[in-house]
Amino acid sequence: MTPHLDAAQPRLNRAQRLQAYQPLSGMVVPRFAGIATFMRLPHISPQLAAGEIEIALLGIPFDGATTNRPGTRLGPRQVREASSLMRLVNDGTLVAPYDLCVCADIGDIPVNPINVEDTLGRIDRFIHDLHQAGITPLSIGGDHLVSYPILRVLGAGEPLGLIHVDAHSDTGDTFFGNQKLTHGTPFRRAIEDGVIDPQRMVQIAIRGTMYAADERQWALDQGIRIIDMEEIGEKGVAHAIAEARRVVGSAPTYFTFDIDSLDPAFAPGTGTPEIGGLTSREALQLVRGMRHLHLVGADMVEVSPPFDQTGNTALVGAAMAFELLCLLAESRSQRAAGR
Q1: What CATH number belongs to 14-336?
Q2: Threshold 0.85, pTM exceeds
Q3: Rounded to an integer, what distance in angstroms lies between the CA atom of residue 73 and that of residue 94?
């Protein structure tokens, strides 16, 4: 069951915490019952997380930087609900993330739904506190601009590599005249800030129309490796995995996964759907192919429940978040073991 913690209680040792911070078993409380948390993990206040947990699952319910269809502010709540279907062990890799790292749901960042810059500052401070405590973040958005302040924090000391799975490059410059902070600009801003190394950045599943050809050209000029859907269709997912691993290498890397990388037949509930995307099986293969990299954080973004009454998109998002959790837990535990 979920542990109750307060400042007066003695801290558990790591072995005890690994045992305590396990998802609520569906054999104890049915998976349709109980309070929804990510993966049915215990919830802990962010103020108590330092020294207690190693990986934090958190929501960022913000879509104030969306330029098309809103609704991703509702993504974290719906993904929490769908994630009750996740179990303990990855069937494809046999990774058991909760046996490797102490994980918990630490709630949502308290965003400002009507102010982009204030929200970015709030995300920045929240992630900074986690980073200072040595906690690895797995964030559930929200629109894709939420990745930008996370990268500003995690890449402040050393520019990060980036695995970016998405239908869109998100390296635009401005929207509606002079608006530089939108869900179509986060990685251009991060590169300009020097927190991403574009020579160690790979974009996978890119497709769809653009406002102007120079958006793609700017990315290529920075040295970003773009693996679009045409290349995946010709050479396969295994080729994309090998290329991504070559590009990011063994240095610290962040993984960002936009749900619109999937074809809308599999994930219709998103703000900017593009036909011709990944299947859910290809997405699983792609993410699982990124094992044993030096991953320092990840996010899954752009689930918009109002555009998917079946709930299937949130289920795909929850499954992708579990896959990312497996990668982070395995990577962190291997570094701790000196492997």
Answers
A1: 3.40.800.10
A2: yes
A3: 32
